[in-house]
Design brief:
Blueprint: H1 16-36, H2 59-86, E1 136-137, E2 144-145, H3 149-159, H4 181-206, H5 216-227, E3 231-240, E4 244-251, E5 264-270, H6 274-285, H7 288-294, H8 299-320, E6 327-331, E7 334-338, E8 341-342, E9 345-346, H9 357-376, E10 390-393, E11 396-399, H10 413-430, H11 439-447, H12 456-477
Antiparallel strand pairs: 1-2, 3-4, 4-5, 5-7, 6-7, 8-9, 10-11
The structure holds adenosine-5'-diphosphate and manganese (II) ion (MN).
Length: about 500
């Protein structure tokens, strides 16, 4: 008999193999997550201050860069801790509010409220109970009044507990810390303004304004443009979309650029979020112009490619004389172009203007011509053409938003064109333009192809057959047809 009694054999509920495989699964999961959502501290990108952007001329900018670097490291650490704490628990805790880089946290001192100016002081301690009404305790020599330094100091320390929970006060009571009134007041003031700041932060998060919709890096990029004299001021946001944010800016007088900067500019910032580019990759993946580059690139670079694509497409259009924004410059994922509109008011979208019957007809023929030019002279299909991406300005239609435009020989190019035609036909037929061609006629008129199917389904099928033929040609000959064979030039429609 064992003198300590029989060891109660605790049954282990799972085997070692189970534990191991669970651990393995967790590791794999983590690995996968890391691959899908790389840390913001992208090692591939290297340190923020690299050769190309070492601009030491501005102290402010240097300070900002250093601060940014620090903040990013801090946040990365925070994220690691968050992950560690949450583990694989079903309920997780977010550390988001403790992050340094908060997209909404701009200048925190802009509207600081002095707590002494406000009547309500949320940090007023509970009624002191340690000192009775008469104002002193004890008798004779041992009397202590409420003004006693030690008592008061301890009380002050205890009051710190009333500060907002995120305000770290440490264990002052445990170490019998005695805070002087002066120090306590200073701390209280700080704690209060911190809470105000934190409250504003959350408020801003809810009504996140467009200005805050860009990440710090982008903000710095914009700041640099202003600093370099490229832009005079960035006045505000015109549009926030799923994939981009557009700002208005007054052009500056940059001495270095040989180009004249337009008095008003539009800045299109392509969003650098991962989920968005997934929707787009069907456009770019198959675009042979970007094909060999696509596979090797990281998401950040792919976003830049969208901006680049929009720039190239706009330039082609510009050269063909199609009314569209003029490219001013491209920096990473930020495209600066001329502003269509006046005095900060962007020209209205075609869907938002009411045109006279005459103007409507004029607009229709103009668009028909532009689509033909786009196809023939620019070798492009807009691929997102609708009343949402056409602006009415100076008595004519301007085309915008061409980052997704592709060449007609793109594997889905003709389908995109057909979709464009559907949008345009519908809009103008509903808008009362009797002359408006239907979508199939419009498609033939733009492409110069002669698809005879008289219903949508068959038409679509023939389009896809053509696309397939082209793809087969690529397979067999290793290169694309320069154009789809057509039965001569498309007929020119005019008023
Ligand atoms: P998105 O991909 O978000 O649709 P767009 O290029 O269509 O991006 O731009 C969004 C909006 O911003 C447009 O509908 C238009 O109102 C405005 N906008 C874009 N570019 C310009 C410009 N050059 N001039 C004036 N307004 C513009
Ligand atoms: Mn658009």
């Amino acid at each position: 008999q064992c003198p300590w009694g029989a060891p109660n054999t605790t049954s282990i509920s799972c085997s070692l193999a189970d534990v191991m495989s669970e651990q393995l699964a967790k590791e794999l999961q983590l690995e996968e997550e890391n691959a899908a959502f790389p840390e913001v501290v992208a090692v591939a990108e290297g340190p923020f201050i690299t050769g190309e952007n070492t601009d030491t001329s501005s102290d402010l900018m240097l300070a900002q860069m250093l601060q940014m670097e620090f903040d990013r490291e801090y946040d990365a650490q925070l994220r690691r801790e968050e992950r560690k704490i949450n583990g694989d628990s079903k309920v997780s805790i977010s550390f988001e509010n403790y992050r340094k880089v908060h997209p909404y946290d701009s200048d925190s001192s802009e509207d600081e409220v002095d707590w002494q100016d406000t009547r309500h002081d949320p940090y007023r301690a509970d009624k002191p109970t340690t000192t009775p009404r008469k104002g002193f305790i004890g008798k004779g020599k041992d009397i202590t009044t409420k003004h006693d330094e030690v008592v008061c100091g301890r009380k002050n320390t205890a009051r710190m507990e009333n500060f907002a929970p995120e305000f770290q006060v440490g264990d002052g009571i445990g170490m019998d810390l005695k805070l002087s009134n002066q120090v306590f007041n200073a701390l209280k003031q700080h704690a209060y303004s911190e809470e105000r700041r934190s409250a504003r932060l959350h408020e801003k998060k809810e009504h996140s304004t467009a200005e805050k919709a860009v990440d710090p890096k982008t903000r710095l990029l914009l700041y640099k443009m202003v600093n370099a004299g490229m832009l005079e001021t960035i006045t505000g946001c015109i549009s926030t979309g799923k994939e981009s944010v557009v700002f208005h800016a007054y052009g500056g007088m940059s001495a270095t650029e040989d180009k004249v900067i337009p008095p008003e500019c539009a800045i299109k910032v392509f969003k650098t979020t991962l989920n968005e580019f997934k929707n787009r990759d069907k456009y770019i993946k198959d675009d042979y112009r970007f094909k060999d580059r696509f596979s090797k690139l990281n998401p950040r670079k792919i976003i830049r490619m969208w901006a680049e694509k929009e720039m190239h497409n706009l330039t082609r259009m510009q050269n063909a004389g199609i009314p569209c924004p003029e490219v001013v410059m491209l920096k990473k994922h930020v495209l600066v172009m001329s502003f269509i509109g006046k005095d900060q008011f962007p020209a209205p979208k075609l869907k938002d203007v009411t045109l006279s019957t005459d103007d409507m007809k004029k607009a229709y023929y103009q668009i028909l011509n532009m689509m033909q030019q786009l196809y023939k002279e620019c070798n492009l299909v807009h691929a997102d053409l609708s009343e949402y991406n056409m602006l009415w300005h100076d008595g004519k239609v301007w085309l915008i938003d061409v980052s997704q435009s592709v060449e007609p020989t793109h594997p889905h190019g003709l389908e995109f064109l057909f979709r464009d035609c559907k949008n345009v036909s519908q809009f103008f037929q509903k808008g009362g333009v009797a002359e408006a061609l239907n979508e199939r006629e419009l498609f033939n008129a733009v492409s110069g192809l002669n698809i005879t199917a008289d219903n949508e389904v068959d038409f679509q099928e023939e389009i896809e057959a053509l696309e397939k033929m082209n793809e087969d040609h690529v397979q067999n000959h290793g290169k694309k047809l320069s154009m789809f064979s057509s039965d001569g030039d498309p007929p020119i429609y005019d008023e």
